[in-house]
Structures are given as C-alpha cells and as structure tokens.
Design a protein that fits this description.
By secondary structure, the protein is of the alpha/beta class. The protein has one domain: Metal-dependent hydrolases (TIM Barrel, Alpha-Beta Barrel). Helices cover 37% and strands 21% of the residues. The protein is built from seven helices and eight strands; from the N terminus they run βββαβαβαβαβαβαα. An eight-stranded parallel sheet has the order 1-2-3-4-5-6-7-8. α1 runs parallel beside α2. The model has no long low-confidence stretch (mean pLDDT 94).
Length: 220
C-alpha cells in the first residue's frame, strides 16, 4: 500500500473516525455490522469478531458474517480479534473465534488487529501454534514494559494511543513496528502524533514519515 504525499496522518484504529484529505483512518466494525455506504475515500476498515461478541450460540453466524464483510475491498485488516478475561464468553469460545480469524487473515493476506486483556498467555500460545505470516498488531497496549519487550521479541506490532504512549513502552518495542490510533476517544490523531514527537524528541516530518513507512510495510 503506497500513500500519496498529501497524507500526513494515519489513525490505525478508530471506532468513529473518517479519513480526511490528509488522514487515512482505519475504522473498526464488528462482525454483523454493515459497512457504511457514505465512507470517505481515505477510510479503510478493520472487520472482526471482538471477543465480547461470542456466545455458544452465535459462533457460526459471526463467522459467516465476517467472511462476507472481509471480502469488501476497503476492509484492509482483520479484527479486533483476541482475548478478554474480564468480559465475554468462556476461554474455549474465545480461542475458537481467534483461531478462525487467524486463518481468515492468512487466507486473505491481511494483517490482524488484536484486543487483549489479561489473555497474554493464550495470545502467545496461539502465535506459537499458528506461526502466522501476516502481522499481528496489538492495539491500545497499556501493559508493563517487560510484557511489551516480550511481545516485541515475538514479532508483534503495536498501535498506541495517548494512554499507551509512554517512554518506558517506547524503549521496549521496535519503532519500525509502531502505529498510532485514537481508538474510541474523541481526540484528534494529531494529538497522538504530537505526544510521540514530545517523547522521542523528533520533528513532525520525521514522525510522519516513520508512521507512513510502517503503515506501508504492514501491507507489503
């Protein structure tokens, strides 16, 4: 994926944003939701079965709906997929849904965005089991630096928002596997870029080019 010179910002994970003339936004939708007909040209989508969605009764329906939605040309990413030990169905249901989305991402050659709350052991076990070719991007990471370092060492990407952008986290991960996001906040993606500039002491053009290059590499 090659971005034009007019693109300044990339919001890799948002639930409400729309791409504007200088911004590419990857808007998240859940399985069963329709892609809006009036999306802007710079809007892409991630589509997935969120771990909160699954029940013992709706697994087949969720999988079918996701297959149909993921075929849309503006769906660039699979997910949010993942694990949540505080909310959602039993672990065996979450693992089944995660494996399905891993397979779909590999078959469609699309990266995957991951939601994980206290399910890191499952995530690492499934990565070892699946051995994915496509990148896995953990969004909204707020864990400890030691965990970030472990995940980075296993090849995970990170998509960070304002609450996750901390010097100790940035020191624990690879800058060439870093993306930025607004998630479900109401703030602008420009605020996230400014925060990264402050923490890294880099100029605006350096941060802009870094995130654009990472975004292009994610899909290469």
């Amino acid at each position: 994926m090659n971005l034009g010179k007019e693109i300044e910002y990339i919001d890799f994970h948002t639930h409400h944003g729309a791409g504007s003339a200088d911004t590419v936004a990857v808007r998240n939708i859940m399985s069963g939701e329709d892609i809006p007909e009036d999306f802007t040209p710079n809007t892409l989508f991630s589509a997935g079965i969120h771990p909160w969605q699954g029940t013992a009764d709706n697994i087949k329906w969720l999988k079918t709906e996701l297959i149909l939605t993921a075929a849309h040309p503006h769906v660039a990413v699979i997910g949010e997929a993942g694990f949540d030990r505080l909310k959602g169905p039993p672990p065996d249901v979450q693992r089944d849904l995660f494996r399905f989305q891993c397979q779909l991402a590999e078959e469609m050659h699309k990266p995957m965005v991951i939601h994980c709350v206290r399910g890191w052991d499952d995530l690492l076990t499934l990565r070892q089991e699946v051995k994915p070719v496509m990148p896995w991007v953990i969004h909204g990471f707020r864990g400890k630096p030691q965990l970030a370092e472990t995940l980075a060492g296993k090849g995970f990407w990170f998509s960070l928002g304002l609450s996750g952008l901390k010097k100790e986290i940035l020191d624990s991960i690879s800058y060439d596997r870093l993306l930025l996001e607004t998630d479900d906040t109401v703030g602008s993606i420009t605020n996230v870029y400014l925060r990264l500039m402050e923490l890294t002491h880099r100029q605006a053009v350096q941060i802009t080019e870094l995130i654009k290059a990472n975004f292009n590499n994610l899909f290469s």
